[in-house]
Specification:
Chain B: The chain crosses the membrane at residues 77-102, 122-142. Chain B: Residues 20-50 are annotated as: Disordered. Chain B: This is ER membrane protein complex subunit 4. The complex is a heterodimer of chains A (983) and B (177). Chain A is mainly beta. Among the domains of chain A are: 315-414; 417-427 and 478-577, no CATH class; 429-477, no CATH class; 586-670, no CATH class; 958-982. In chain A, strands 43-44-45-48-47-46 form a 6-stranded antiparallel sheet. In chain A, helix 4 crosses helix 5 (460-471). The longest helix of chain A is centred in the C-terminal third of the chain and has 31 residues, at 952-982. Chain B is mainly α. Chain B has a domain at 59-149. Helix content of chain B is 62%, strand content 3%. The longest helix of chain B has 43 residues, at 40-82. Classes of the chains: A mainly beta (983), B mainly alpha (177). Strand 46 of chain A pairs parallel with strand 1 of chain B.
C-alpha cells in the first residue's frame, strides 16, 4: 500500500508540473521579443531649453502620449490612452508638466515631464464632443497660478496648471460654436477667441484671462459660408476659406468691428484649380495655403492685400513657426527631390534667404513627408542651429540634424492591419560552413561554459556570459529555414499601406515596401489597406519560385470603391504585380485549391455579388470549374440582420478573360430585428489541421467530433443591450449563440443566455467554440464553451469492423447529408474582460490546445482548453480523473505564471496570431497592438525536443566517462580472471 | 578449452558416468583400493543406483515443472501492488510478467535437459511447465489489457484515422472593411 501511495504522489507531481509552463527569469528573451512603438505622430513639443536630457513629447494617432529621447529616439515614458480617448492636443506647462487634452476636449491630464507620472486629471463638462483647443499661455512666470484654457464646444474652461482645479467656466453660446483660433497678445490679460457659429457666422470674443468675463463679443455673418478652416495672419486679421474652398476670406476684427474681404484664389495663383486647404500655422503675417499641386506661402499685408512669397512644389511639407525672439520666427520647408530631401529653414523677417539649407538622402520606402516639427539649438558660435522631426507617409518618425538622419523609428508598426507568415529560404549547401568553422572554438567555449553552469561551477561573470550567449544566439537569427520551423518571416500590413517582413528570431525588419498602389494618386484618392493573404506557397512543384503574399486594399471607404491587389515577394519584398481592380472587393475567399504553379485560388465577391476568380489564368479556371459545384459562399449583413448563403453559377457563356460568376441565393437566415442584432461572427481558421475525429472519453468510449470548416458561430444580442455594459437591465438583455452550417444554412445549435450582453469575443476551433461575454445578473464576465459531436457516426464502435476497415469514418462527408449532432456546453466565470481571443495551432493538431486571451491589461494569458471542457463535473469519477478532467469550479483560474507575455505588456493589444512551427509541440504566437510581442509556446511542453539549455557537453562527458569506466572494469576483470586461472 | 575444463570439474563431482576417471587427482587413492576392480555386486548396485537416480530425476523434473506456480503467485501479488494506472512501475511489472513466461518457454528444452533419461518421461512435466508459463503469459496479457495497452476498444482504432474530408467548401462572412 505504501508503494501505491508513493506512486500516487509521483503521478500527482507529474501532473502538477505539466500545468505550469512558466518561464524562468533567465529564459526571458530567448524565444521572445518585444518592441515598443507609439504610432503616427500628430503633435510634437520639444523640451530642450534646460540642461539635462533633451526630449520631445509627442502625441500620436494611436492615442499615445510619449516622451522620446532626442538623441536616440528611445522612449523615456509612454502612456497609451484608451481606444476612444483621442488626444486632441498636447502641450507643456510650467516647464515640468505635459498637458494632454483628449476625448473631444472633455479630459485634461497633466503628466510629470521627467518620469511620466500623472499629476492630475480633470473631467470637463462639454455639451457635445467637438473640435477643442488647448491654450497654455506662453508668458508664464513660475510661482503665479497659471491658468490653462480649454475651448471646447461652446464653453471655455480655465484650469489651474498646478492642480487641475477648474478656476472659472464660461458658456459662450448654446448653438454650434466652433472656436478656431485662440491667442493672447503679449503682456495682456485678454484672450482673443475666434470661431464660427454654424457655417456662416464669424464670431470674436475678448475674454478676461483671470476671471473669464467676456469683455466684448462681436458677430457677423458671411453669406457664402465658411468651410470651417481659419488661420490667424496677424493680431487683428484672420484668413478663412469659404464653403467652396475657392475663395480666401480675410476677416479683420479690430475693436470689435468685423470686415470681410473676399479674394479669389485664382486671381492670386492663376494655375489654381480644385480645392484649397489652409495649413494650420501661426506665422506673423504669413499664410500657407495648400492647393492641389503645391503649397503657397502668402504674406498678408492688409485686409485685402495678399502677396505670393513662394510656391513650393509637391511633395513637400512645411513646419509651424518657431519663435526665436519677439520679432523673429523660423520655419522649415522640406521638399522632395526623388530620393533626396531638401531641408530649408527661413526666418519670417527675411523670406527670400534661407538660414539653413541641407540635403538628406532618404530611403525610398518611406514615402512622402507628412509632417514636420522644427526645433532649434544654440551652436557654439551662438548662432541658431535647427533640427526637425519628420513624420513620413509610412508613419515612421525621423530626426534630421546637420544634414543627417540621426535616428528613425518604424512607427507604422503600431498600426498593423493584418499579418501572415512566410517560410524562409531553404539553406543552400556550402553557405554556412565557413561560419561554423570560424566559430568552432567559440562553440566549444560556449558549451564548456554551459557545462560549468549546469554543474554550478560558474562564477557570476560566467553566468552573465552564458546568458549573453543564449540571447545572442546566431542560430535563431539566421535567414534560412530551420529544422524546427521556428524561424519564419512575419509579414505585416500597416495602415499606411506598408508591408514589412519581421524575422521571428529577433523581430528585425528584413524588408519593407511602401506599396505604390496604396498611396494617394490621381486614380485612387483615398486608398487603404485591408488584408494580406498567402498568394503562392511553393513546396512541391514550384520550389524555385519564391513564396508571395497578396495584399488587398480598397480605394475609399465605400464598399463599391474599386479594389486594389498587390502581389509581393515574401523573400525580398519585390512587388511582382499590382493593379487597381475594375470591381469592388466585398469578400475575399482563399480557396483550398492551387493551380499548377501553386498559386492559391481566390474568389473575390464584388458589391454586385459577382464572383471573380484570381489568378486569371485558364489553368486556374479549369481547376476551379471542376470544383465549382462544391463551392459556396455566405454574407453576413449586420445592418439588415440577415445571413445569406449563395452558390456560384455561370449565366450564359463563361468569358474566359473575365472569369465572372453569378450568385445564386440558396438560403437566408433572418434574425428578428426587434429582439436580436448580430453582434459577432466567428469561423474556424481555414488552415487548422485536426489530427483525429474521435474524442476518447472515460472507459475507452468514443465520441465523434463534428469537424467541419463550414461552421459559423453567430452571437446576437438584444438591440437594447447592444451598447455598453450597464446600458440595459438584466431583464432587457439576452444573448443568443448560434452554430450555423454555412453550406446548407442549417442551424446546428442555438442557445440563449438571459441577462447577458456584449462585448462578445469568440474563437472557433476543431469542434468547439469558446465565447466571452458579460453576465449582467452576476455582474461578472463569463466564458462559455460549446462542443459539437456527430451523432450519425456514433455506431462505429465495433472493434472488428474497425480492424477490418469496414467503417465509413474516412468517407467524405457532405453538409447535405444533415448529420445529427449533439452538443455539450458549460459556462464559467472569468475575472478579466477580454480584448482578443485566439487558440494555439500546431502542425499536426495532436498537441492539446490552449486559449490565448488578450486581457484588459494588455497581456496575453494562456488558458488550457481542459478548463473549458463541458464534461467537467464537481466530482469526476476515477476514470475521468485519469483522463485529465479537472473538477468543476465556478470560475476559471488565472495562474500568474501562465501569462505568455510574462512581465511585459503589449500596449493597445488588438490581435493575437498563432502559427504552427514544424515541431508538433510548439506554436508561434505573435500579438500586436501599439507594441509587438512574439514568442513560441508549447501547450503540452516540448515533449518532442530537448530544451534549449540542454547541455550537450554534459551528455558527451557522461558518455566519455562511461566508456572509460567500461574500459577500466574490463581490464580489471581480465586481470582477475587471469589470476584465478593461475591459482 | 580451459574454461570447459573448469566446468567439467564441477560436473564430475555430481552426475557424470565416468566420474572416477577424472576424479580429483590431488587426493591419492587409499591403500589397497583398486580403481579397476569390479564385481557383480557392484553391477547390481549400480543398476539400483541408476534407478534411484532416474526416480530422483523424475521427481526433480516435476519440481522444476511446478516452479512457475510460485512465480505466478508472486507476479499476481506484484500486479495487484502495481495498480491499474499506467506508470513506470506497473509497466515494468507487466513487461517482466510477459517476458518471464516467454523466455521460460523458449528455454523449455534447456530446463529439462539435465533430467533427460531414457527411463524418465519428461513430457508430462514439460507440458505442465508450458501450461503454467502460458498461464503466466495470459496473466501478463490480462494485466496489459487492464492497463489499457491492448487495442481492444474502438477508440484504439479510431484515433489513427484521419478526419473525413469535406465535400463542400464555403467562404465569405462579414464584408471586409
Amino acid at each position: 500500500m505504501a508503494i501505491r501511495a508513493c506512486l500516487g504522489l509521483m503521478i500527482l507531481l507529474v501532473f502538477s508540473s505539466t500545468i505550469s509552463t512558466a518561464l524562468f527569469e533567465d529564459q526571458v528573451g530567448l524565444a521572445d521579443w518585444h518592441q515598443k512603438y507609439i504610432g503616427k505622430v500628430k503633435h510634437a513639443i520639444f523640451h530642450t531649453q534646460k540642461t539635462g536630457r533633451k526630449r520631445v513629447v509627442v502625441s500620436t494617432e494611436e492615442n499615445v502620449v510619449a516622451s522620446l529621447d532626442l538623441r536616440t529616439g528611445d522612449i523615456f515614458w509612454r502612456h497609451v490612452l484608451g481606444k476612444i480617448d483621442r488626444i486632441d492636443q498636447v502641450d507643456i506647462t510650467l516647464g515640468k508638466y505635459v498637458v494632454t487634452l483628449s476625448s473631444g476636449g472633455s479630459i485634461l491630464r497633466a503628466w510629470n515631464l521627467p518620469d511620466g507620472q500623472m499629476i492630475w486629471e480633470s473631467i470637463l463638462q462639454v455639451s457635445a464632443p467637438s473640435k477643442s483647443l488647448l491654450h497654455v499661455p506662453a508668458n508664464m512666470n513660475v510661482g503665479k497660478d497659471n491658468l490653462i484654457l480649454v475651448f471646447g464646444g461652446s464653453s471655455i474652461h480655465a484650469l489651474s496648471s498646478t492642480d487641475g482645479q477648474i478656476v472659472w467656466r464660461k458658456e459662450l453660446s448654446t448653438n454650434s460654436l466652433e472656436i478656431q483660433q485662440v491667442f493672447q497678445p503679449h503682456d495682456s490679460d485678454i484672450i482673443y477667441a475666434l470661431g464660427f457659429i454654424g457655417s456662416s457666422e464669424f464670431v470674436a470674443y475678448y475674454v478676461n484671462y483671470k476671471t473669464g468675463e467676456v469683455l466684448q463679443q462681436s458677430k457677423a455673418s458671411f453669406k457664402s459660408g465658411f468651410c470651417g478652416e481659419a488661420s490667424l495672419a496677424s493680431d487683428d486679421v484672420v484668413v478663412a476659406l469659404d464653403a467652396s474652398r475657392t475663395y480666401l476670406v480675410s476677416i479683420s476684427f479690430r475693436n470689435g468691428v468685423i470686415n470681410f474681404q473676399q479674394i479669389y484664389i485664382r486671381d492670386l495663383i492663376p494655375e489654381f484649380s480644385g480645392k484649397a486647404t489652409l495649413l494650420p500655422s501661426k506665422y506673423n503675417g504669413i499664410l500657407a495655403v495648400d492647393i492641389a499641386s503645391s503649397i503657397v506661402l502668402l504674406r498678408v499685408k492688409g485686409v485685402n492685400e495678399l502677396e505670393i512669397i513662394e510656391k513650393i512644389n509637391y511633395p513637400s511639407a512645411i513646419s509651424d513657426a518657431l519663435p526665436l525672439s519677439k520679432e523673429q520666427q523660423a520655419f522649415a520647408i522640406l521638399q522632395h527631390d526623388e530620393s533626396r530631401i531638401h531641408f530649408k529653414v527661413k526666418f519670417d523677417t527675411d523670406l527670400t534667404n534661407e538660414v539653413l539649407k541641407e540635403t538628406i538622402q532618404m530611403d525610398g520606402q518611406r514615402g512622402n513627408i507628412e509632417k514636420v516639427f522644427i526645433n532649434n539649438y544654440m551652436r557654439t558660435d551662438r548662432t541658431h542651429g535647427f533640427r526637425v522631426l519628420v513624420v513620413m507617409e509610412d508613419h515612421s518618425l525621423l530626426l534630421v540634424q546637420q544634414g543627417e538622419i540621426v535616428w528613425s523609428r518604424e512607427d507604422g508598426l503600431a498600426s498593423i492591419v493584418d499579418s501572415t507568415t512566410s517560410e524562409l529560404p531553404v539553406e543552400k549547401e556550402g553557405v554556412s560552413v565557413a561560419e561554423v568553422e570560424h566559430s568552432l572554438f567559440e562553440w566549444l567555449k560556449g558549451h564548456f561554459l554551459k557545462l560549468k553552469g549546469t554543474l554550478m561551477l560558474a562564477s557570476p561573470d560566467e553566468v552573465a556570459a552564458i546568458q549573453a550567449i543564449r540571447l545572442k544566439s546566431f542560430e535563431k537569427n539566421k535567414m534560412t529555414r530551420d529544422h524546427n520551423g521556428f524561424r519564419k518571416l512575419i509579414i505585416v500590413l500597416t495602415r499606411a499601406g506598408k508591408v514589412l517582413a519581421l524575422h521571428t528570431g529577433d523581430g528585425r525588419v528584413v524588408w519593407s515596401v511602401l506599396l505604390p498602389v496604396l498611396r494617394k494618386s490621381e486614380t485612387c484618392g483615398n486608398p487603404f489597406a485591408l488584408n494580406v493573404y498567402q498568394w503562392q506557397v511553393p513546396h512541391h512543384h514550384a520550389m524555385h519560385e519564391n513564396p508571395s503574399v497578396l495584399v488587398v486594399g480598397r480605394c475609399g471607404h465605400n464598399f463599391d470603391a474599386p479594389g486594389i491587389f498587390s502581389i509581393v515577394d515574401a523573400y525580398n519584398g519585390k512587388v511582382h504585380n499590382s493593379l487597381v481592380l475594375e470591381h469592388s472587393v466585398r469578400h475575399i475567399m482563399p480557396l483550398p485549391l492551387t493551380d499548377s504553379t501553386e498559386q492559391n485560388l481566390h474568389i473575390v465577391i464584388d458589391d454586385n455579388l459577382h464572383a471573380h476568380l484570381y489568378p486569371k489564368t485558364s489553368d486556374s479556371v479549369k481547376i476551379f470549374l471542376d470544383e465549382m459545384p462544391n463551392i459556396y459562399w455566405y454574407s453576413v449583413e449586420v445592418g439588415k440582420n440577415i445571413i445569406k448563403g449563395y452558390s456560384l453559377e455561370i449565366k450564359g457563356e463563361l468569358d474566359m478573360a473575365e472569369n465572372v460568376f453569378q450568385p445564386k441565393e440558396l438560403w437566408s437566415i433572418v434574425f428578428p430585428s426587434e429582439s436580436e442584432t448580430i453582434a459577432l461572427t466567428a469561423t474556424r481558421k481555414m488552415n487548422e489541421i485536426v489530427h483525429t475525429q474521435a474524442k476518447i472519453v472515460a472507459d475507452q468510449d468514443v465520441m465523434y467530433k463534428y469537424i467541419s470548416t463550414n461552421i459559423l458561430f453567430v452571437a446576437t444580442v438584444a438591440p437594447k443591450a447592444s451598447g455598453e455594459i450597464g446600458s440595459a437591465t438584466p431583464e432587457e438583455a439576452w444573448l443568443y449563440a448560434y452554430l450555423i452550417d454555412t453550406v446548407s444554412g442549417r442551424i446546428l445549435h442555438r442557445v440563449s443566455h438571459q441577462g447577458a450582453q456584449g462585448p462578445i469575443h469568440a474563437v472557433v476551433s476543431e469542434n468547439w467554440v469558446v465565447y466571452h461575454y458579460f453576465n449582467l445578473r452576476a455582474h461578472r464576465h463569463e466564458m462559455s464553451v460549446i462542443e459539437i459531436y456527430d451523432q450519425s457516426r456514433e455506431d462505429n464502435k465495433d472493434v472488428w469492423k474497425l480492424v477490418l476497415g469496414k467503417h465509413n469514418l474516412t468517407a467524405p462527408i457532405s453538409s447535405y447529408s444533415k448529420p445529427e449532432v449533439t452538443v455539450k456546453s458549460q459556462s464559467y466565470f472569468f475575472t478579466h474582460s477580454v480584448k482578443s481571443l485566439a487558440v494555439t495551432v500546431t502542425a499536426k493538431g495532436i498537441t492539446s490546445k490552449q486559449l490565448l486571451i488578450g486581457t484588459i491589461g494588455d497581456q496575453v494569458l494562456a488558458l488550457d482548453k481542459r478548463f473549458l471542457d463541458p464534461r467537467r463535473s464537481v466530482n469526476p469519477t476515477q476514470s475521468e480523473k485519469e483522463e485529465g478532467i479537472i473538477p468543476l469550479t465556478d470560475s476559471l483560474p488565472i495562474v500568474p505564471q501562465s501569462y505568455v507575455t510574462h512581465a511585459l505588456q503589449v500596449e493597445g493589444l488588438r490581435g493575437i496570431v498563432t502559427t504552427p512551427a514544424k515541431l508538433e509541440s510548439t506554436t508561434l504566437v505573435f500579438s500586436y497592438g501599439v507594441d509587438l510581442f512574439f514568442t513560441r509556446i508549447a501547450p503540452s511542453r516540448t515533449y518532442d525536443s530537448l530544451t534549449e539549455d540542454f547541455s550537450y557537453a554534459l551528455l558527451l562527458l557522461t558518455i566519455v566517462a562511461l566508456v572509460a569506466a567500461l574500459l577500466v572494469t574490463w581490464a580489471l576483470s581480465e586481470k582477475k580472471e587471469l589470476r584465478e586461472k593461475w591459482r | 578449452m580451459e574454461k570447459g575444463k573448469g566446468l567439467a570439474r564441477r560436473w564430475a563431482v555430481e552426475f557424470a558416468e565416468n566420474s572416477y576417471s577424472s576424479s580429483p587427482v590431488d587426493v591419492p587413492d587409499p591403500m589397497g583400493f583398486s580403481r579397476s576392480s569390479s564385481d557383480p555386486d557392484d553391477a547390481n548396485a549400480s543398476r539400483q543406483k541408476k534407478e534411484a537416480e532416474a526416480a530422483w530425476k523424475a521427481q526433480k523434473a516435476w519440481e522444476v515443472a511446478q516452479a512457475p506456480v510460485k512465480n505466478l503467485l508472486m507476479m499476481g501479488f506484484m500486479m495487484w501492488m502495481a495498480g491499474s494506472t499506467v506508470h513506470l512501475f506497473s509497466i515494468g511489472i507487466t513487461f517482466s510478467a510477459l517476458w518471464q513466461p516467454i523466455s521460460a518457454l523458449q528455454g523449455v528444452g534447456k530446463v529439462f535437459e539435465p533430467y533427460k533419461d531414457p527411463r524418465v518421461d519428461t513430457l508430462a512435466p514439460k507440458l505442465l511447465f508450458i501450461a503454467l508459463n502460458l498461464a503466466g503469459l495470459v496473466l501478463g496479457i490480462w494485466k496489459l489489457n487492464t492497463l489499457g495497452l491492448l487495442p481492444t476498444h474502438a477508440s484504439d482504432w479510431v484515433s489513427s484515422l484521419p478526419p473525413a474530408s469535406e465535400v463542400e467548401y464555403a467562404g465569405g462572412g462579414l464584408p471586409v472593411h
